[in-house]
From TrEMBL:
The name this protein goes by in its record: NH(3)-dependent NAD(+) synthetase
Presence of keyword Metal-binding: yes
This protein's pathway: Cofactor biosynthesis; NAD(+) biosynthesis; NAD(+) from deamido-NAD(+) (ammonia route): step 1/1
PANTHER family reported in the protein's UniProt record: GLUTAMINE-DEPENDENT NAD(+) SYNTHETASE, NH 3 /GLUTAMINE-DEPENDENT NAD + SYNTHETASE
Keyword tRNA-binding: no
BP GO terms, sorted: NAD+ biosynthetic process
Family: Belongs to the NAD synthetase family.
Entry-linked InterPro entries: NAD/GMP_synthase (IPR022310), NAD_synthase (IPR003694), NH(3)-dep_NAD(+)_synth (IPR022926), Rossmann-like_a/b/a_fold (IPR014729)
CC per GO annotation: cytoplasm
E.C. code: 6.3.1.5
Primary enzyme class: ligase
SUPFAM superfamilies referenced in this protein's UniProt entry, alphabetically: Adenine nucleotide alpha hydrolases-like
Biological role: Catalyzes the ATP-dependent amidation of deamido-NAD to form NAD. Uses ammonia as a nitrogen source.
Gene that encodes the chain: nadE
Provenance organism: Fervidicoccus fontis
């Protein structure tokens, strides 16, 4: 892992440097939630480009867990990353008021999507104002599942993590030296208090990533996937149904144009699967 991790980081660094150079912009900005993906990307950008070319925006709402705020601030201060903290609660409340709604009356998914789009509006404000590119933080797992807000958290000028599954981002985070607390923190879009990705998706990311990898990268049938992984076929079906029904969301985004063979490092997935296939 160490050697391939180094290769991956170097390729990402070259990709980011070239993207920035070709754009004529002064750096990157991104939203930082204190979760795995945004924290990993923030540190990757800082280590690749230096402090002066990275601006992180911490954009809490009144429903944002205090612990996530603390994690985000602690991360940027530990890695010496520029940051701003802006409370978006007044914007959300004003938006809902204009629409004749309130936090209590509006559907929680609708409210979560509003928050994501307000955050992206603020991120693009700073990008325009400071001549920066927006770095989107979504990973390959979220992209394939359509587990993002259209024109919200998926929006960006560049998507550095879009070729990496969630479990691969976790490996990359360790390689970059992120705190273990952030690496192992349960993923959450933060749409409502206690919102956890794996609970909503119905399976742990370790399983989801393997299903997606086998279905898309290895082109196995759903039944073959269930047999290889030793999981219930219904779970595989539900994951694939989410992929298919959210095709319309993926049409707005293309994965970044850098290439490397890193797929075998999903928790040593390929080795274990190859053994089963041969056996």
């Amino acid at each position: 892992m160490d050697e391939k991790g180094d290769v991956l980081i170097e390729k990402l660094k070259l990709f980011l440097e070239k993207t920035l150079r070709d754009s004529g912009k002064d750096g990157f900005t991104l939203g930082l939630s204190g979760g795995l993906d945004s924290s990993t990307l923030a540190v990757l950008l800082r280590k690749s480009l230096g402090k002066d070319r990275v601006l992180t925006l911490i954009l809490p709402d009144k429903d944002t867990p205090l612990e996530d705020m603390k994690d985000a601030v602690s991360l940027v201060e530990s890695f010496d990353i520029r940051y701003l903290v802006i409370d978006i609660s007044p914007i959300i409340d004003s938006f809902l008021h204009v629409l004749g709604q309130s936090r209590d009356s509006v559907d929680k998914i609708v409210l979560g999507n509003i928050k994501a789009r307000v955050r992206m509006t603020i991120i693009y404000y700073y990008a325009n104002y400071m001549n920066l590119l927006v770095a989107a933080t979504s990973d390959r797992t979220e992209y394939l599942l359509g587990y993002f807000t259209k024109w919200g958290d998926i929006a960006g000028d560049v998507h550095p993590l879009l070729n990496l599954y969630k479990t691969q981002v976790r490996i990359l985070a360790r390689k970059l030296g992120l705190p273990e607390k952030i690496i192992t923190k349960p993923s959450s879009p933060g749409f409502w208090p206690g919102h956890k990705s794996e609970e909503e998706l119905g399976a742990p990311f370790e399983i989801i990533d393997k299903v997606l990898y086998l279905a898309i990268d290895k082109q196995l049938s759903l039944q073959e996937i269930a047999d290889v992984l030793g999981v219930d076929r219904e779970m595989v079906n539900k994951i694939w149904e989410r992929v298919m029904k959210n095709q319309h969301k993926r049409k707005i985004i293309a994965p970044p144009a850098y290439s490397f063979m890193y797929m075998e490092n999903i928790e040593n997935l390929l080795k274990s699967i190859e053994k089963k296939e041969v056996g």
